[in-house]
Request: fold
Amino acid sequence: MEYRYIKTPKVEGVKLLDKFNVKKPTTGILYLTTTHLIFVEKAGKRETWLLYMHMATVEKMAITTAGSPLQIHCKNFMCLTFLIPRERDCHDVYITLSELSKPENIEDLYAFHFTAPGTILKSYGWSNFDLLSEYLRMGAPNEHWVLSNLNTKYELCDTYSKNVYVPAVASTPVLLGSSKFRSRGRFPVLSYLHRENQASITRCSQPLAGFSARCVEDEQMLQAVLRSNPKSQFMYVVDTRPKINAMANKAAGKGYENESFYSNMKFQFLGIENIHVMRSSLQKLLEVCELKNPSMNAFLSGLENTGWLKHIRSVLETSVFIAQAVHNGVNVLVHCSDGWDRTAQTCSLAGLMLDPYYRTIQGFQALIEKEWLSFGHKFTDRCGYLNTVDSKEISPVFTQFLESVWQLSQQYPCAFQFNERFLIAIHDHVYSCQFGTFIGNCEKDRIDLRLSERTFSLWGYLAQNINEFTNPLFKKEYEITHSVLIPQTNPQFFKFWRGLYNRFENGIHPRENDIDLLSVYRQHSYSIEDHIALLEKRVMQICKLLGKPDEIIQLKLQGFLSVDSLDGILADHIESNENEFHHNAGILDEAAGFDSISNGHITDTIKHSHIGCDIGPRIKPRMDELENLDNMILDSDLLTLDQLVSELRTVALDWRSFRRVYNCNCLTPFDHHVKKFHCWKCGDVFCNRCTSQTISLQGHLSSQQVPVCTSCFQYVQQSRSR
Amino acid sequence: MEFAEFIKTPMVDNVTLKENFKKPIEGTLCITGHHLIISSRNQPHDELWVLHSLVDSIEKKLSGSTGTLTLKCKNFKVLQLAMPTVEDCLNVASSIEQLSNLGDIALKYPFFYQPSFEILEDGWQAFQPETEFSRHKECSDEWRLSYVNKDYQVCSSYPSVVIVPKSVEDELIVRVAKFRQNGRFPVLSYFHRHNKTALMRSSQPLTGSNSNRCKEDERLVNSILVQGRRGYIVDTRAQSVAKMAQAKGGGYEPEANYSRWRRIHQPIERHQAFHDSLIKMIEACSDPNCSMDKWLSKLESSNWMTHVKDILTCACVVAQCIDKEGASVLVHGSEGTDTTLQVTSLAQLILDHDCRTVTGFEALIEREWIRGGHPFRLRCSKSAYAVTKQRKESPVFLLFIDAVRQILQQFPCSFEFNEYFLIDLIQHVYSSQYGTFLCNNEKEKSVHKVTTTTVSLWSYINRPQVLNQYLNPLYQPNQVVLWPSVAPQSLELWNELYLRSQADPVPMEDRWREVVKIAEYDKELKAKAIRLRRQLAALEKEAISKGVIKLEGDTGGKTVTSTEGAVGGKAEGASVNKPVKQASINKTLKPVDGTVDSKNVKEADGVAMDKLENPTSDKTVEQLEDAVGGLSITSTVK
Reply:
């Protein structure tokens, strides 16, 4: 259907201009498909893919003798300039891109046409999150909080979820009254309940106070929220806006609460700027990012002038204020104007600081689902999916949230189960519209569009590629040692997020990625553990065949090559080595524990959709086997020498270093932001696509499916069928 | 001893030491000639020793009958001492102030320090020019060691032994030295084996406003150029600055006289500017409550990051000339003791993978900075917090280390050492029990008999138990030239050093521990797997020799049925038989039918499996051993 827009499917002799090397553009062919603009370099066949949905602006620049330049800015911060030889072609491409990058109709979005490769079901991932179970996890409903049935048909507030939790003591008239007194009916409802002390975060929109209006029900509502936490004598009402903005709203009959009508409340204005300020700040930031060879001072003063980091800091500072209050046992009610931008940012960040669950991969999804999707952050409008969206509605509110999370993860590198790639992947797909997850402006929109039936879920995609997104440094102990994470908000601790805003500038990133290397170590350790388990079993089997006593077997397992000659001093050794042996067992147990998160490829996608399946049991039986050696031998398969040999050959002990690997076998170039993968059998380096097949290896004791490259996959399959 | 006169109160009880993010220590404060010691009376017994020379500034704050002392240290730590009485407070403050500012070098702690460890390898002997040169000699015959400066007469800031072009005789060097500021004639700094190009350094030529010329100087520098090739002179000053230097008798090499050289000006600020920058930058870092705008504008106006960028850029230019263009390079600024050394040493770090090991880096510092005559005593006696401003102070070396750390950030797997090594080096430069960074040059060192009366820092660091904490578990030796990015986005302020008094160190220490744990665990596992593979192979052999495992088709336990071509079809391959019961071990073995076609194995694994041709018992074990090391597996990687 979109074919009608495509005027020229292919343009030859196009030059891709390099910002840093204007004199040396690369020449190639531009293809226009239904979903992507693809530039294929003539030499090297390197491909650059641009999703139409990602295009923010397409501009025709002043024509030059060499051709007509066409500049494309993408929402994932890619910026490309093509030089098209003929003006007419340039114009055709321009028209086509303008049409395709901003559909008129929501059902023309990419998600409604996208089909995932392979056998993944559309339903996969849609059921990962359930709002009611998330509240149950937090401890609601309980004696203070109940699930209200007033919004089941979205009659009270159509931008909220149909499931909202309200104070148990708040009567229906109070809820109705409060809802009428709040902008767009967004009355105070539960956002987060802190299990440790029952303090809570509630969120709403601004009151329709104007200069003098007053609503008794709303006042009672706030008292009800206060009473839900009997241990506290007061609560905070956090208005995230600068006070002057809040005052300006009074003229429009909105504004902020009159302190004299609400008792036992402490009111706080925290000064986060509005969406328009944020939009222009990001625009300035991108201009700084695109400076050609800036001096250090030009960059720093540019960065200062954008105000971007100042805004990120104010978002984090407000979140810290909320988190600290809740940590100290005080309830906080948060609102801004409509309660779906700044409120969503600060409530979700405060949750992230308070609850270690939200710092896991699964929990982070729950956090986004709860605070952003179910509370109606207007993704369609803020991200400008459609041509019909007013450009004044577009604002990088969610981007700021992701950046704040990134800033936190920079201060606490071991506190998060996910890595930077994960945040960037979410950012990309919020804008790509490839998945239905973020389409629409609220829960009601998504249900009306039947997205869970018609589109794929981002969470399903992320779960499938979990290996790419786990942080190897994640320490589970942080759940206890750093259960509440209060970051530093000194300006010195805020960094420029080069990995997002300058992602496509290949030259400026670290040339070696230590986090990726550590992920490789984790994966490799996992493979070797499994292999060792098998080797130990084989050693025990042969020892038994040779009739060796158990003590000798234990020494053999520790690698003593010629224990038999040590017969005389054996007794002493056994004792001292036994200690070591137990010590080793300890290490393995620990390993089993800490590896449980980064464990291998998740293949049985439904079954393992939650990460962190425990590999402990796989190691443990090995210890039992020692004791029940006879049984084990009777139960095990028959062995052949060739089998032994081939077992050794199926597991690579050494994995190839990433160094000087510039592209995959399939010629996909490895840019800095492309993650490299290993084949677990041959140990060579491949791209994600080339290691997407999984199979169990003979050299592993468990028959866990592990990623292998295409040729190893075929080899293992062939040898198996024989 | 002479220290006693400064120590008014040698001991104060009930003092509390506070440091951000650390548990306070309550206890007794002792002042000795070189240390401030605080030890707690409580269990566990905490004790902290601080060298007076580490204290950069001391601030007193009196309130009522008590007082607080804030000690700002040269390693950017800030300590607070809560004193019980005003008198103690004042006495201690004045003692520390005087003891931390002792000018007399003979009173420095290294001359008093007795090591508590046995010196295995003497750091003073570790990097002798003769041994370094003998290695160098293997790849080039164009150079020689010159002892022309053995009495430090020709150049007081040069070492007694230098490397100069072989074709240039000592008399000529003496004349060249008169034409270069402070006698710093061009010497070899680094030789790039890869393409046999040289990096030399010197001070500025004394051309002066009369355009003086020195034929000997021209001959010396030209002598290193290969016939028909041009070299580069990299001047670390802006052209205008170099021109202005002529008025004061300095200058630069004019093209007319140095026609075989191209001059490039890669401006780096003078060392005085560095000091101001450091003060401004640290001041900006110490204000946690300022606004984002103010912080960024203060950071910008400090120019610190600009210096880092300039130094790195210049080093990259030098490295490019050498590696990409194959041209020899002469680097100088004015005196040739500051920016020149930053550039030559960084260029080596970029070009030479040896410099990225611990000993290589130590050698680099010893060669370029210590023997190269960087005036450490003048530059590094005070740091950012000091109230008294001295003109010669300058964090030249700190900037070099900062730049090294930037490269380390961009290539975290190419350095044998970690960031903590660099941070501790900085501390030892400013305040140390070791003599390595004492004095301004080798001449002064020999006057004060530093090498015979003090301990070398390298003697301490190079012991395994110390070295271990400085090793980078992600290190994979990387022979290639590193090309760091110098874009502003790529350079980061070194928070772990400059903001150490503001930040909780625990998350970053956790991070490092985790990195070490993951890497070490993987290494351990791999070693274990190899051990078990060997074990398996040995057991296999034993099982076969004892006849516990028989090979199928094997008649007597010795002869085997294979022929060369039979791999695929006839030979069934060896098989391990497994007894059904333990009792059956005594030779009643049941043959097994699970044979594997070894030809297919061969096809898949290519070369490495060629040995498989004969499935004799020995050969099979051999294959097993083959597979053991994992070598055959990696060698088949495409």
User: Anything to note?
Assistant: Chain A is about 40% helix and 10% strand. The two ends of chain A are 48 Å apart (CA to CA). Chain A touches chain B through 103 residues (CB under 8 Å). Confidence is low (pLDDT under 50) at residues 563-637 of chain A.
